[in-house]
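Appendix B. One record, verbatim.
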Amino acid sequence: MSNGRVDSVPVATAAASRRVSAWMLWLVVLLLVYVLIVAVDVIGRGFSAASGGAEGAERIFAFATNPVLGAILGTLATALVQSSSTVSSVIVGLVAGGLPVSIAIPMIMGANMGTTITNTIVSLGNLRDGPAFNRSFGAATVHDFFNLLAIVIFLPIEAVFHPLERMAGALAELFTGGGSASMADANVVRMITRPAVNEIRGLFGAIPDPFGPLLMIAFGIALVIISVLLLGKLLRQAMTGSSERIFHAALGRGPVLAIVVGAVITILVQSSSTTTSLVVPLAGAGILTLMQVYPFTLGANVGTCVTAVLAATAVSGAYEVFAIQIALVHLLYNTLAVLVIFAVPFLRDLPVKAAKALAAGAERTRWVAAAYVFGIFFALPGAALLAQSAIGGPSAEVLKAEENEPQLKAAEAAVQAQALIIE
């Protein structure tokens, strides 16, 4: 009897020690997630400072002379500025200044594409581990290919028939004047990460341009690589037993549930870049498959639009209707894209096949990843911008809207104050 009691002591002690170790492990994981979110924000701030922020986006959009260029330059502006709220405010400001919504909609489609570069940057954290990089790069780029396919399908339809413009215009009247439903004050993630981001900005702000912003980008990328490397190792240890069952219960029981989970989490976090970036290390660690990440990403695409519509209701005065209409265009576009593409098996499989092929190529030759990021987000759109500036010149409609500077800046300030985001 006494031997039984004696033997139970070390067993109980060992069990308690394992519980403490598990809690410590998850605390370190949460700390690394915090570092990753801060790092992504720091990269965005660095890009925004280096590219000129709202003024840089305005200069780029000045050459959007047709729907195709509008989408291409929307991608370039968002990739360079790395601030969805800034690009959103510029688009709303241009519409408030007199730019037809039909010209602004392709810019929204392009901006939707441009934000996906964040996930790809996060996947670079696994660059040295071939299989892990394959999984994480595929999980990051499936978002790119989905958004690219959505542009290919909906841009010509919108250019000819204008369904998004008409539906958003009709719905905007229902939302206008109904009071604020913004969740900006409930953005807990922003509240806890903003102090660290501001400290880092202050540190590099003392360095003259352009070196300060460029060093801030490099510092942010270094933080991403370190945090993703450590997260990959720790998540493999942490994701056992009940933790693994919870994850697979949420994302492994079919695509519809994964879409809903992605949308709900993004509405709560209020940033699709954050939620989709956080699943990249999980994919890299082999905890989530590409087929689990894919529908979750689509849900995040829709969830961020809901947040944008709620934020738009808080924009008051003369600019309210423009902000709401742009936010509704974004919501309708992403929702219809999910419904159309995911409902058709042939279309649904295209982003997955493309992401797998690209990831396999990037695993074999790492420069494929660099060429993809630089080519899709910077080189090709930049070449289109240079060609238009050299041959065709700027758009008369955009220039006319930008000439109304007081209204443009007032609208931009009103939208940025409510953190309206196109992601």
